[in-house]
Amino acid sequence: MGNATMTPKQVRLKVFRELCRHDNDLMSCWVPLPTTVIADCLHISLYQCRKQMRQLVEEGLAVRSSCPSDSEDCSLPYHGFLITKKGRDTDIYRYCSLKGARICAECFGGPMEQYLPTTFNYAWIGKEAPVREQLFEI
Questions:
Q1: Lower CB density within 10 Å: C or N end of the chain?
Q2: Which H, E and C letters describe the chain, residue by residue?
Q3: What pLDDT sits at residue 54?
């Protein structure tokens, strides 16, 4: 589906899914994800991204955050967004957690469960995601 034909809800789901993927990234999950990066990754306008991110913050799924850069770095602090506890309790987040854990298990070895967040709802494993259509059609 092209970006020009997406509804605002579909754009919001794409933005949230990108934030969920980032939160499950082993290398940089603690760094807030800027809207400029999300917009670039999803090939959407910065305006669309910021508008939908504001909505996600209002819904309690994301929070604005910043962190200082490395002490050896001379760059500015990182500003962006992180997932909230409410955001981690969504099917999209669980799907992204499972996908990330599978990749880590294949690359680094060991059981997939060892790479899942400690608060992961294990009863969800093996069940069809209720939002599967939304995850793949956007």
A1: N
A2: CCHHHCCHHHHHHHHHHHHHHHHCCCCCCCCCECHHHHHHHHCCCHHHHHHHHHHHHHCCCEEEEEECCCCCCCCCCEEEEEECHHHHCCHHHHHHHHHHHHHHHHHHCCCHHHHCCCCCCHHHCCCCCCCHHHHHHC
A3: 96
